[in-house]
Design brief:
The protein has a four-stranded parallel β-sheet. Strands 1-4-5 form a three-stranded antiparallel β-sheet, with helices on one face. Helices cover 36% and strands 19% of the residues. 35% of the residues are buried. It has helices at 25-30, 41-48, 57-66, 96-102, 114-123, 147-164, and strands at residues 2-4, 16-20, 69-73, 75-79, 89-93, 108-111, 131-134. By secondary structure, the chain is α/β, with parallel strands linked by helices. The mean pLDDT is 94.
């Protein structure tokens, strides 16, 4: 099935960009990043900032803006049955050259999975002056690493955000 990514969740103050591969079916249907309740992204992000978990997507967007965090995906479109990145074919990548021209304040890019990093490096060239890091997937299906281990590895985002304030 043909899938297209969500528009970036970003503004001119964003300095940190978290890149997933392609939203899953539930996220696309809800038009919300990490809209699948089985994905631990939001639980992890609130945990690393020691903030209370928020259910409202609009309030989550305000939370991200507070920490200068943007969300987007590496792929603009692809063909994929279901939501697994391993089933992606016929992918097209987002235009990161123009993206970084439009949002020049981005200093850090964190890939939300090895798959996101793999597709990025396959089709894109890292921009000078931007630091790139790959983190473990927040998918509940990525069970090779415990939730607490993921939290420890994701703390780099909170540390980075705090250094930028």
């Amino acid at each position: 099935m043909y899938k297209t990514a969500l528009d970036p969740l970003i503004d001119s103050s964003s300095k940190i960009l978290i890149l997933g591969t392609m939203p899953g079916d539930q996220s696309i249907a809800k038009q919300q990043f990490y809209g699948n309740k089985g994905n631990h992204f939001w639980k992890i992000i609130f945990t690393i900032f020691n903030e209370d978990y928020i259910q409202s997507y609009e309030d989550r967007k305000i939370f991200l803006k507070k920490y200068k965090i943007a969300l987007w995906n590496v792929l603009a479109s692809c063909i994929r049955e279901g939501s697994s990145d391993s089933k992606i074919t016929n992918e097209t990548v987002n235009d990161f050259v123009n993206f970084h021209k439009q949002y020049p304040n981005i200093q850090y890019v964190f890939f939300e999975s090895k798959s996101a990093a793999k597709f990025f490096y396959k089709y894109s060239t890292p921009q000078a002056g931007i630091s790139y890091h790959t983190l473990p997937s927040t998918s509940g299906l990525h069970a090779g690493i415990s939730f607490n281990q993921k939290v420890e590895m994701w703390k780099i985002i909170a540390e980075t955000a705090n250094d930028l304030s």
